[in-house]
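Q: A reviewer asked whether we had any structural model of the full assembly, not just the individual parts. We don't, so I'm hoping you can provide one. Inputs are below.
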Amino acid sequence: MELPELETFSERVYWVVAQVPSGAVASYGQIAHLAGAPRAARAVGTLMRRSKENGHEDVPWQRIINSKGAIAFKGDTLRAEHQVRLLVAEGVVFDDYSCDMDTFEWSPDHAYWAVEW
DNA sequence: GTGATGACACAAT
DNA sequence: AATTGTGCCATCA
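A: Here is a predicted structure for the entire assembly that you could use as a starting point for your response.
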């Protein structure tokens, strides 16, 4: 695949997230880093929450969790359970709203991840 | 332009 | 292990 030339941070984030394969997960911080803003993990969370209304209904938002391997918004039980269901269906093993990052965290394996946006 | 808001991350309790 | 405090930063109002 080719590295697209995306202007805005949000577009780059959505593109990176789209690269995460089924059966794997990635942290907000990892996505922020790959999108060129290493410390913008928090902003990535905002973008995942709003992905649908931003016109990115197809991005696998459910694969983005926090750095500890847990669902980020335990407050919203309904939504959290939905996310876990989706991930389990993809083969990720969850226990008490969290999974083992050593096993399931996505490892980007292409050289172009080193390029600068 | 300015300040408030989070699906974060990390260190210190 | 769980909670609290700080830093962060793209969005939104």
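A: Points you may want to mention in the reply: Residues 8-10, 13, 32, 37, 39-44, 46-47, 50 of chain A lie near DNA strand C (CB under 10 Å from a C1'). DSSP finds five helices and two strands in chain A.
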